[in-house]
């Protein structure tokens, strides 16, 4: 039977989610409207306080920002490209820097707002574009500090900063550019990585659940097709007996009968597996661990299972997570992987240990983070295709089931412990089955 059109069984990378705009133009326009409102309010308050500055050029710069927003509203692009976002944010940096130059430069208390565009860039653009905008911001701040026109108080006196204080303000703005841009970019990158990894987790779990539901469809198909196949087999056998005088037709009837027998055998085998998938809501712990380890049984290292006598929930998410943990152990084991369980004090503990190199000490505290690199810079096992998501997916799925995970060295290789409260994982195999899962049309 052809493979079902499900997502691939391997880890799903960040390229699978649909690509999004770096930032919506509507967002840039809205932020600029807030900036324009703030600039106009600052101008009005300054005039009320009697502070003197070049009013006409300042209003012209604010009008330029208004014109830019109106142009974006009248003819919005279908999608915002990274280059388009850089152009818009560069315009904002230039406009704010020019306003600073006309209103006292570093002496302007609103000078820190020049950090806003580069911070927005850090949250939505890649590192190269963010660095380019940051360099432009640093250059414009420095030029503004040198050529700024001073503000004048109501008495006509210039409002200037002492050289030492001006240098301190300039330094603070330089640090702000680096800190805010770096901090925002790092946080956004981690959130995006986590979002992509969760997407991969959801896809992996959905695949396991769909495969489990497919088992019920297969079981039903095997049951329903049993009778017509038996009829075909019976008629073909009778035709073969009656066609002794037509050897060519008799051979066709015999081939038809044998094919019906073969189909019945295949469906019988699939039906048994399907019933297992559909009805087994609880299974012995050993059976669940063997199910998780089975895909990696022939990859080199021996997988040895030592399990207590306990019936647990047969959850596809738990099986998939344990399979990922066992796969990671097999990928790095020298000769053996041991999977063992222990029950005590109301807890079930499953330990997976290998005799490989173990986890690097520098990464041990980060095990389970998405897109973490391999243990020693490369896998030891042929066929390894890790993308740093296996342990993250396993950790996420197991924690949703109520488990607590621990990662350590000393097996002599890596050791992973998974601990469940017994009331969260134990199951009664003799309990009623309940309703079968709904099947998609």
Automatic annotation (TrEMBL):
| Spans through the membrane | 27-46, 53-74, 94-118, 130-149, 161-183
Q: What is the enzyme's class at the highest EC level? A: transferase
Location(s) in or outside the cell: Cell membrane
For this protein, what is the EC number?
2.7.13.3
Q: Which InterPro entries match?
A: 2C_sensor_his_kinase, HATPase_C_sf, HATPase_dom, His_kinase_dom, HisK_dim/P_dom, HisK_dim/P_sf, RegB, Sig_transdc_His_kin-like_C
Question: What topology in the membrane does the UniProt record assign?
Answer: Multi-pass membrane protein
Q: Histidine kinase domain: from which residue to which, for each copy? A: 220-424
State the GO CC annotations.
plasma membrane
Q: Which Pfam families does the UniProt record give?
A: 6TM_PilS (PF25323), HATPase_c (PF02518)
UniProt keywords (A-Z) are: ATP-binding, Cell membrane, Kinase, Membrane, Nucleotide-binding, Phosphoprotein, Transferase, Transmembrane, Transmembrane helix
GO MF term (any one): phosphorelay sensor kinase activity
Quote the PANTHER family the UniProt record gives. SENSOR PROTEIN CREC, SENSOR PROTEIN RSTB
The identity of this protein, by name, is histidine kinase
Q: Which organism is it from?
A: Paracoccus lichenicola
